[in-house]
Amino acid sequence: MEGPATMTSAATTTLDATVPRLHEAFVSAEPVLTALDEIAGDGDFGVNLRDGFTEVTQRLSGPDSPSPWDAVRAVFLDEVGGTSGPLFGLLFQALGVRAAQSDTYADALRLGLADGLAAIERVGEAQVGDRTMVDALAPAVETAATDRDDHAALVNSAVEGALSTSSLRARRGRASYLAERAVGHPDPGAIGMALLLCVLAEPITAPETTARERTRLLEAAARAAPARDDT
Ligand code: ADP
Ligand code: MG
C-alpha cells in the first residue's frame, strides 16, 4: 500500500540512529550475557540478542529495506527466540509507536518505556523482585516519571536495578528451576535491559555518563560470570 509520503518524526529519526550502536553493544556484550545465562538458564540469551541485531542490520542492507526501527520491532517480535526475544519486541514496538507520536525523543523514551513495561508485565506476568528484565526496566520507568529531564538518573536506576538482581531468587522463567545457582549473579535479562537503556539514553545524556554506567554494569556482570574467552 503506497500512501502519501509519511512524515518521519525527529524522535523516530533519533531512535533509528540508535540501531547501529545497539548492534555493536550487543555484539560486544554477547560473551558476558551468554555466561550469565549459562549459570541459571540455557545459555542462549546473549546469542539471541546479538543475532537479532545482526538480522536487523542484514535486513537494512537489502533493497526495499524497512525503516531501521521497524526492522528492530519486527525481528524481535517475530524471529528472536527465547522468552526474552518477544518481550523485547513488545518494548521496541511501544518505543516505535511513541516515537512516531512524540515531539521529542525524550518524550518518546519516557512514554515508550512505560508502555513497554506495561506490555512486558501483562504478557510475562513478572513483577519487580522476580529476577527478570523487569527489575531493570521498572526502576527506569519510575525515575523517568518523577525526574523527567534527568536521563542520567534513568540510566543509573536501570543499572542499579539490574545489579540488584544478584541477590534475588528467580520466580519466573527458566532460572526459577535453578534458583540457588543464580544467587550471587545478576540476571542476564536485567543486565541486557540496562545495557539497552544505556544506549537508548545516549542521544540525550552526557556521553561520559552513559559510558561510565555501561562500564560499571558490564564490569560487574563480568566479575560475576567470567566469559568463556576471558583470561
Ligand atoms: P529462555 O529461558 O526462554 O531461554 P531467554 O534466555 O531468552 O529465555 O531470556 C532469559 C531472560 O528473560 C531472563 O534473564 C529474564 O530476565 C527474562 N525473563 C524470563 N521470564 C520472564 C518473564 N516472565 N517476564 C519478564 N522477563 C522474563
Ligand atoms: Mg535462555
Give a brief rundown of this model.
The protein is 69% helix and 0% strand. By secondary structure, it is mostly helical. Helix 2 runs antiparallel to helix 10 and helix 7 packs antiparallel against helix 8 (151-164).
Could you describe the 3D structure shown?
- With 231 residues, the protein is mostly helical.
- The chain has a single domain, classed as Alpha Horseshoe (Serine Threonine Protein Phosphatase 5, Tetratricopeptide repeat), CATH 1.25.40.
- The protein contains eleven helices and no strands.
- Helix 1 packs antiparallel against helix 5 (84-101), helix 5 (84-101) packs antiparallel against helix 6 (105-124) and helix 10 (188-201) packs antiparallel against helix 11.
- The longest helix has 22 residues, at 19-40.
- It is globular and about 50 Å long.
- The mean pLDDT is 92.
- The site of adenosine-5'-diphosphate has 25 residues, from helix 3, helix 5, helix 6 and helix 10.
What attributes does this structure have?
binds magnesium ion, binds adenosine-5'-diphosphate, 11 helices, mainly alpha, globular, 231 residues, Serine Threonine Protein Phosphatase 5, Tetratricopeptide repeat, 69% helix
Reported by name, the CATH topology is Serine Threonine Protein Phosphatase 5, Tetratricopeptide repeat
Sheet/helix structural class = mainly alpha
Strand content range: under 5%
Count of DSSP E strands?
Answer: 0
CATH superfamily: DhaL domain
Q: What is the helix content?
A: 55-70%
Q: Which value, in Å, is the CA radius of gyration?
A: 17 Å
N-to-C order of helices and strands = HHHHHHHHHHH
* CATH 2nd-level architecture: Alpha Horseshoe
Which ranges are low-confidence, i.e. pLDDT below 50, for 5 or more consecutive residues? none
Main sheet specs: none
Number of discrete helical segments: 11
Small molecules bound in the structure, each named once: adenosine-5'-diphosphate, magnesium ion
Termini Cα gap: 54 Å
Q: Can you identify the CATH class?
A: Mainly Alpha
Tally the structural domains. Answer: 1
Average pLDDT across residues?
92
Silhouette: globular
Domain DhaL: 13-202
Organism: Nocardia vermiculata
Protein name: Dihydroxyacetone kinase subunit L
Pfam family, one: Dak2
